[in-house]
Structures are given as structure tokens and as C-alpha cells.
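Let us work through a complete example step by step.
Step 1: write down the sequence.
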Amino acid sequence: MEIVSFLGRALFVSVFLLSAWQEFNDFGDDGGRSAKSLRPKFNAFVSHVTTHTGQQLPPVDMKLLVAAAIALKGIGGLLFVFGSSLGAYLLLLHQAVATPILYDFYNYDVDKKEFSQLFSKFTQSLALLGALLFFIGMKNSRRHGRQLRKKAPKAKAN
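Step 2: predict the structure and record it as C-alpha cells.
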């Protein structure tokens, strides 16, 4: 059954690893296409945060943000394949930060084509986030269950 679990983790994480590999190969001197397409979405996100909270976010270099995303997906993905909770937490961090910025359906009218495309990708990203939370929960419950079994005293036979 362990091989099935490993294959499931490998297939799941392929989304992150392939994305990280593609962004790494395209990175170049300026962060590549990812940095160029992220800039307007990040600016819109900063505008929303500033409007709703009154707080100004510090300036961020898109090249650094893309490099961090590549690192989170690459390292997190490799660790996750081997069942590491740290890998799941790294992927969870990436998803939690990237999802509302990349899939900004809230910036479009419901009637627009972009709204439905971005909303679909947003919900798919939420499903990945949910799967990561499920993995972390199962990992913690198994660890907790093992500790309870070890602590329970065995009954003596008379």
C-alpha cells in the first residue's frame, strides 16, 4: 500500500514540480514571462490591500518573488514526494500566497470571460490547498495515534 501512496504523492506533486521547472528554465535575467505577467496582478492585489486595510505594502521585486515561488514549489515538491510534512507546508505556503494574486477573478465582472476562467483556476487551486491540508491532517493523526498506542499500558495476564 505504501507504493500506492508514493505514486499518489508523485502524481499530485507533478503539478508543482513541472511548473517550477518551466519557470526555472524561463527565468533569465528579468524573471522571465512569469515576472512580466505577475506584475499587473500583484499591483492590483496591492491596490486592493491598500484600499481595504489602509496599509501600504513594501515594494517587491518580481524577480525575487518568482524565484521564491520556484524554490517553494521545487523544494516543497521534492520533500512532499517522500512524505515530508515540511514539503506539504512549503507547498501550502505557496498556494496560500499565490492563489489570490494569480487568480484574481474578483477584478472582473461576472459576465466577462476572464471571470469564469480565473474563477475555475482559483477553485482548482483551492482544491490543491485542501488536499495539502488533508495530507497534513492525516500525517498528524497517524503520528498522534501511534503515540497513544505506545503510551497505553498493556494489561498483565494472571
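Step 3: interpret the result. The chain has one domain: 1-151.
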